[in-house]
Amino acid sequence: MKYEFCKREQELMAEVSEARLLEYTQHVAAEVRLSGTPEEKRAFLYVKKTLEEFGLSTDLMYSDAYISLPGKAQLRVAGVEYRCITHAMAIPTDAAGLEAELVYLGKGSPQDYREADAAGKIVLLDGLAIPGAVKQAQEAGAAGAVFINAAYTHEMIVSPVWGNPTPETFSLLPKIPVVSVNRADGDRIKAALQSKGTTKVWMKTQVDTGWRKIPTLVAEIRGNVEPEKFVMFSGHIDSWHYGAMDNGSANATMLEVARILAKHRDKLRRTLRLAFWSGHSHGRYAGSAWYCDTHWEELYDNCVLHINIDSVGGKGAVVLGEANCMAETKSLAERSVGLIAGQEFYGSRFGRAGDQSFWGTGTPSLFMGLSEQARSDDPAAQAFALLFGDGRAGGFGWWWHTTEDTPDKLDPRYLVRDCKVYLDVVYNACSQALLPLDQRAAVEELIGYLKQYQEKAGERLDLTAALERAGRLKEVVAQFYACLEQGNSLSAEQLQVANETMMRLSRILVPLNYVRGSIFDHDLAMKQAPLPALAEIDRLAEAQAGSDEYYQLRTVLIRRVNRVNFALREAIAETEAALDQLQKL
């Protein structure tokens, strides 16, 4: 499809300033910004002051958050000391440290664990220290874990708990000490282990974990037609080390978008709400989760779209087509990326990451990061490819989450390019008469997942009703959008019905497609299947017929199929009612 900029968009793009973007980045990234520290607060105050200079109203709030700041770490293998780092939410050792036998388990696959006895030992693993790998080591009885990263060690948070822990989730926090070494030292450790057969490893870690006050900053540019409705544009300020790319350049982009749109506020139909988080890196999205918990009904009632930004403008960041999106938000990104970067936007499904704390409210989402490195054989790029997308790009750069994330890792040309993409997306989301949400694509995606689940389940579980209802929903949603093709001839009353219907559909379909548990809680920060309520179909398909597991899985899945069926029924009813209203107006 061929897209063109309108005159207003051309004017906006021309206003993006490279000098301002670099100036904002330098200010934000002048200090290390650990969550809840004075250095982070100074960055928040700088952003607040700058936004107020643009004429925006601001609100700086504080909340209690469970924050974990890694301290010193030591590692000794066969008498040789190795440099290492420990990780947020890992437990610290006692003053004497931890000593145990070392066992190498490769990438830590289930087969690797089956073939080795990890109980009471410290496991040596290839890859990044991620929650799933730590959880697997714990379940195997490991006493600790050592991860082999790439050329540099990468700071990580190893807890699967999204936001602050609760009585239900506190027990899921990590229970073992964890460190990471670089690849060169990892190879030496593996060589020593191979030559000796067995060897002892000693590790000592310090991790400062507890409750802290962290800031959240919100600012608004009020819309002119429906100011109660808002687009939320968010990014985190806290950082690992100086974090010039992650997330200084993103904060700079938010400021530049705010500066430009403040000058053109008369063209905004809806309100733009900018939100700056703490607790992203050191509290597993504690800031955004708190904001959702505290403003749940307002978000449910009025937030039309969440746009997130992380780690933009990096050197070598030439791939924009793989950024995260939902099916219903893809077309908005497709247009902007095509016009500004000249690339096809195919998008990748969101994972459980990146301050995506708002799916329970039914808020559609677009982006986490945007631009990535080209795919390569570098171990860091291969690991990042799976973290950030579906493997067709190489992540944010080898310096991500390292001491090397400094201003020299930014390419001003790409920072301007990425800023223009965000500016165009935010402007259109705030100014278009019709919300830029394609619920047809959302329904089509759900039908595809339902068909896959039915194929896996076979005769063990009947999804006929769900498929029939999804098919009916596809028909009525197509009719709904056909009514909207009148474009500018839609009356104000019809526009209101159309936009409210799109929002109500999001409130049903987003949780159906992305939420496993309660819409008022936060699912774990772990890999999650599409239509997660039905994910146990995979286990049902493999369970022995007639076993306890088989009957238990069938019982829970019948209940979850009811949830799916009911949601689809509600979506059909909403759309049919809207069609009736549109035809009468």
TrEMBL record:
Coiled coil: none
Cited SUPFAM superfamilies: PA domain, Zn-dependent exopeptidases
Any one GO molecular-function label of the UniProt entry: carboxypeptidase activity
Leader sequence segment: none
Domain of life of the native organism: Bacteria
Domain PA: 99-189
Span of domain Peptidase M28: 217-417
One Pfam family per UniProt: PA
Protein name: M28 family peptidase
Organism in which the protein naturally occurs: Paenactinomyces guangxiensis
